Amino acid sequence: MPSRERNPFVKRNQILELSIEDYAFGGKGIARIRNEKGDFVVFVPNTLPGQLVKAQIKTTSKKYAEASLINVLQPSEDEIEVPYQDIPGAPYIQLPIEIQHKYKKESTLSLFQRIGNVPNIEDLFDEFIGSPNDFHYRNKMEYGFSAIGYDRINKTDVDIFTLGFKRRGVWWMGDNLEKDSGLFDKQLEDNIKNIRIYCEKTGLPPWHGPKREGFFRYFVVRKSFKTNQLLFNLVTTSSGLDQFSMSKFIDFLLSIFGERMAGLIHTINDETGDRTIATTGSEKLVYGNEKIVEELLGLQFEISMKSFFQTNPKAAEKLYSKVVDYVLEDQTKVDNTVVMDLFCGTGTIGQIVAAKSNNAKIIGVDIIASAIEDAKKNAKRNKIEGLQFFAADVGKFLTAHPEYANKIKTIILDPARAGIMPKTLQKIIDLNADRMVYVSCNPATQARDTALLRDAGYALKKISLVDQFPHTAHIETVALFEKK
Ligand SMILES: C[S@@+](CC[C@H](N)C(=O)[O-])C[C@H]1O[C@@H](n2cnc3c(N)ncnc32)[C@H](O)[C@@H]1O
């Protein structure tokens, strides 16, 4: 966190016009203020090189400041028109995908140079893998109802019935989705407007954040790319439920989506906190099936509304293929040995490795019990043998099982955004495996761990980048480490 130390360039809350010159990891534009006192950097999230923007300084330090974007005064020459509604979830959609890839690659590799202390990272770089679909790639979306909307013309809030996404940084204000955002299912998003009109006509109110009251709260949709089906979850409060006809709502959804509609879950969520999680509450299946089936690299996975599943399944196939390539690169280190899949989620990676190797024993560990249950069911469904799954914290699991030390040749790691706790990483190092294949959705924590691994004798051999989320700042990495 930047301190509040003074600098001779900007003050907190100051509003400035800034030219964005570069792109920093994580989606921040870099502007520079130059005067007789020198150069000063200002980071402005969600901006692009070439834009002229109006921004407000939020925090300052001696060396740099962080600002928030007020509006774009002049677009970048790189920007193109797209036929989609702009939403906070896709800040770079106007930038051609090749330029997005270039920014992601350069900013990620520079992290490994700076934080990971890997000066020759360019030599170790293997491949940049784009998403097979640049648009309509997501398999899940959460839309919120709100009684307060945004008037895009007058740039102010208004009391209207809305269904769409929250305005960036304004938790209580919704912004109507009038058409396809380009990220999720086109037919679904082109109909969000009609779903909103239907709900408004019931006369029941949408959620009013500040007043903490209302009936309609969220509409969540999960899609299977394999079957093209949609699973819905309507989240409401119980207040006014007796005036809402669920059977008419089901008929309405069927009239639009027909056989594409796999099922409808109704969740009653009466929580009044500002930041309630959309789908908490009591759920009941009111139509069809509560699960959909997805396929990844020929294996089938049954997914419920809540279980974690890769959001871009087509890109996940590419990611998993790369992981499996690295794991199986030297097959002798996998066949007839134990492979650990740590932070395994629903066990997808371990199952794919098991399916492609001879007699390998895979041990999967994840802290979420329901994910481990899904992992076991999916392994059975796919008839894959040699897998064992444990619901446990990785660190505690390794302390409780010292028998694995020196018995494992390959470890697969896929931690959550926060990365691996240093104590847990030490326990993983103590397993003394020949190599590790480390997948990360947050290369900043992976770069930090790269330095720790190197000190423990593991050298980075190769790294690939996978663009799982086009039009956002996110990037996934797959890195191969080997014992020196
Ligand atoms: C990025 S996901 C891994 C997904 C999985 N490899 C897949 O492809 O489906 C990270 C996983 O780490 C798990 N996790 C987070 N902290 C953990 C911990 N301390 N011990 C074990 N698992 C943990 C989460 O439950 C989550 O499933």
UniProtKB/TrEMBL annotation:
One matching Pfam family: TRAM
Positions of the TRAM domain: 9-71
Gene Ontology terms, MF aspect: rRNA (uridine-C5-)-methyltransferase activity
CDD domains: AdoMet_MTases (cd02440)
GO biological process: rRNA base methylation
Entry superkingdom: Bacteria
Positions annotated as active site in the UniProt record: 441
Key words, A-Z: Methyltransferase, S-adenosyl-L-methionine, Transferase
InterPro entries hit by this protein: Methyltranfer_dom, MeTrfase_TrmA_AS, MeTrfase_TrmA_CS, NA-bd_OB-fold, SAM-dependent_MTases_sf, TRAM_dom, U5_MeTrfase_fam
Binding site for S-adenosyl-L-methionine: 310, 343, 366, 414
PANTHER family xref list: RNA M5U METHYLTRANSFERASE (PTHR11061), TRNA (URACIL(54)-C(5))-METHYLTRANSFERASE (PTHR11061:SF30)
Family in the record: Belongs to the class I-like SAM-binding methyltransferase superfamily. RNA M5U methyltransferase family.
Protein's name in the database: 23S rRNA (Uracil-5-)-methyltransferase RumA
